[in-house]
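Hey, quick one: can you model this chain's 3D structure?
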Amino acid sequence: MNGFVGVIEQKIMPLANKIGSQRHMTAIRKGIIATMPLTIVGSFFTILLNIPIESVAAIIEPYREVLDIPFRYTVGILALYATFGIASSLAKSYKLDSLTAGILALMAFLVTAAPPLRVFKDVENIVAAGRYMNIANLGSGSLFGSIVTAIISVEIYRLFIVKNITIKMPEGVPPEVSNSFIALIPGAAILILFWVIRHMLGFDINGFLSQILMPLKDVLAGNSLFGGLLTVFLICFFWVLGIHGPAIMGPVIRPFWDMSIAENMDAFQNNVSAFDMPNIFTEQFLQWFIWIGGAGTTLALVVLMMFSKSEYLKSLGRLSFLPGIFNINEPVIFGAPIVMNPVLGIPFIVAPLITTTISYFLTITGVVPMMVARLGFAMPSPIAAWMSTNWSVPAAILVIFNFVLTLGIYYPFFKVFEKQQLQKEHEEKQAEAATK
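Sure thing. Here's the predicted structure for all 436 residues.
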């Protein structure tokens, strides 16, 4: 066992930490996470428009088109915000002007993803003649294009800065003015490059990336049970190694997650039933049905600890209960610990795999609907599942069922661990008594 732990510490952890801290991966993670407040706000409007009370729905109905606008300008143009966030984050890591980098990346993304549509004649009571931009091209479907566009734009901007191919202003000129002139040449290069690629050569970056990556998205964040189980296993496995699972997996899977929930929200806004959404394995599916109390469904373990015979485990359980209700479980992961602990590490991995399988089959058989909203992670799971599935009571009941089932899975392992802890406490008391 010690040899296995040594291999993990010497080989796996350095590699995992290196991947997690890689400059571009970090920028992608930070840029996409920065859009979370907007998607959460957009989700509340989705929920508001679908309150299952007839009297309330009747009041809302005349204002439905107006109330839909916040959703369209949050979730509906998710990739636009992600472009700026990724570019500015990457620029900061290079110690470049993040505002300029973000603006240049936005320009490149719009040139690439949203070619203007020209209407030559007025269409009475529908649209006036002019040029228009389809905001559907700026949504979750263009997220991978936004990532690539942002990274390429910043790298071009950086290349011109490093090679000193810029217009310099005299000393004493305000920095914001100086930065604007510095960006002129790299900005022109970025604009021409993406304009030529998209409009002269006719190469659609977003369409190309979608064709390449969509099969992977369908596996990791679509409707594949294998992909869902693989994701759950890897996140839990990294946690057992002492590595923040979502931080390692985030740069790879978060774009898929964000795309999946955005697709579901958009379909739901277009009157598709919550039982017929495009994607089962959204982040919210895991967050509310599986991660009850945090990754590994540790709220069950915390409850067992609260009634432990061990003084230490009982104290840790009581201290961890309130954070656990709001899905914060670092106290128990590192306090028990679960990290590098095979006794608790086994149920930490196995329990979520079982509840994922059960939740998947209950979803595909129509017992519970799919996720149609994105709420903040620090919400009690039964309430969040109820709200996120279009007010589905069976979804809330499923959370409670999974929690009780997880209690049963953790229990025998917990009793073994408790026995070890009690023995340790007994030995410590004996040693303390001997010193007196």
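One thing worth noting: The CA atoms of residues 29 and 254 lie 8 Å apart.
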